[in-house]
């Protein structure tokens, strides 16, 4: 056998090996494509003020936000919950302080964002202590002020404008925004708890409607329960004697259940599919 025959056989052998390897890779690739891909768990992000997460979320001063107990209503083997609320923030300062930027960067398609602001929006626009107030309402009006905290000029918008910004940013990431009206305070008149019907509840509902978000009237849901339980029980069971805004643990758990009930009641909200079955 001459050298030319040997070279031809070696070339054919190398070609056959390469062809076999290529076929193997195609078959493996096809098999991988047919294998079910692990589905990413969605994340539910919570943003808001201290009524959603008080302090560091560890019961500081015996006070709790409802965000700490919302997970009890969900199947957390199927959905992840992150509570990014921060006490003292308004719908404005949660954005101007960069808190929303950090949350927004984490949002992925199929996620959910529940927002609840309002308690700190009712304040001065440019005081030296907080400078966190927003213009009352849901319009497009704005006002330029000097912010003594940031030490620069700032254009301040309405409460509804800031909510619509949260909503638009969430939807831009193919996630679902949910707006809650603020929980009622422990304030009573004539045996009935005071409601925010014509204020922040109304503006939150309008902003949600305009932005295409789900709205949960948490103020009404909780107030209805307070009225049913009565002033004496509410004051002694859900609040302490010195704070009329922040709940103790029992109150936070009640508020969390109200949020879950609001989610369950909305049949168009996919988030309801991650709730635990009713006991």
Task: Provide the fold topology.
Blueprint: H1 3-34, E1 43-48, E2 80-83, H2 93-96, H3 99-104, E3 112-116, E4 142-147, E5 152-157, H4 159-172, E6 176-180, E7 188-189, E8 192-193, H5 200-211, E9 214-216, H6 218-229, H7 231-237, H8 249-265
Parallel strand pairs: 1-2, 1-3, 3-6, 6-9
Antiparallel strand pairs: 4-5, 7-8
Helix pairs in contact: 4-5
Structure in words:
With 279 residues, this protein is of the alpha/beta class. It is built from eight helices and nine strands. A five-stranded parallel beta sheet has the order 2-1-3-6-9, with helices on both faces. β7 (188-189) and β8 (192-193) form a beta hairpin. α4 (159-172) runs parallel beside α5. The longest helix is centred in the N-terminal third of the chain and has 32 residues, at 3-34. 38% of the residues are buried. Residues 6-10, 24-28 and 30-37 have low confidence and may be disordered.
